[in-house]
Amino acid sequence: MLPWLGLALLIFLADQFTKTLILGYYQLGDSTWVTSFFNVVRVHNSGAAFSFLAGASGWQRWFFTAIGLGAAVFIVWMLRQHASQRLFAFAMACLLGGALGNVVDRLMHGYVVDFIQLHYAGWYFPSFNVADAAITAGAVGMILDEVLRVRRGR
Predict the structure, then answer these.
(1) Which of 8, 36, 41, 93 has the fewest C-beta atoms under 10 angstroms from its C-beta?
(2) Is the predicted pLDDT of residue 138 greater than 70, yes or no?
């Protein structure tokens, strides 16, 4: 289980380091063009994915913090049970590192710091961060693990 917790820690540290850089060098709304499809921008998200519930009265901060902490406890339990299943454990470690990265933001700031902005021909994908990318990678890993498990069972 230790290597997977190490991976989660690396993801968490990378997430917090990049967010610290953004908070130190960018004001809210500042943006830097990097390529024709990628910008670095400072955005604050007080909601969940795609700013879900961002306009709520503040209760969502504690609600999403509780969900993140509950998910972290459950993920650690799942890692203890399935540490030898490499793809599954990789996915869980990605989810754990990402969840804790965003929980720390909510506790420290009351919002999550997002800074990666992808766009094409006037269309902009909602901004995200390293934690969000790790959570996405973890979700894809879980789906792939399940597909492979079902195929092996046939």
Answers:
(1) 36
(2) yes
pTM above 0.70, yes or no: yes
* Paired strand residues for 112: 45
Q: Does residue 29 contact residue 42 with C-beta atoms inside 8 Å?
A: yes
Q: How many domains does the chain have?
A: 1
Q: Which stretch of DSSP H or E encloses residue 113?
A: strand 112-120
Q: Catalytic residue at 105?
A: no
CA distances from 79 to 4, 46, 58, 93, 133 (A): 8, 29, 32, 8, 20
**15 given a catalytic annotation:** no
Per-residue pLDDT tens digits for 28-85: 999 999 999 999 999 998 766 656 555 555 666 778 788 899 999 999 999 999 989 9
The CB density around residue 121, as the number of other CB atoms within 10 Å, is 6
Catalytic residue from among 15, 105, 114, 145: 114
Q: Can you give the residue range of the structural domain that contains 108?
A: 2-24+41-153
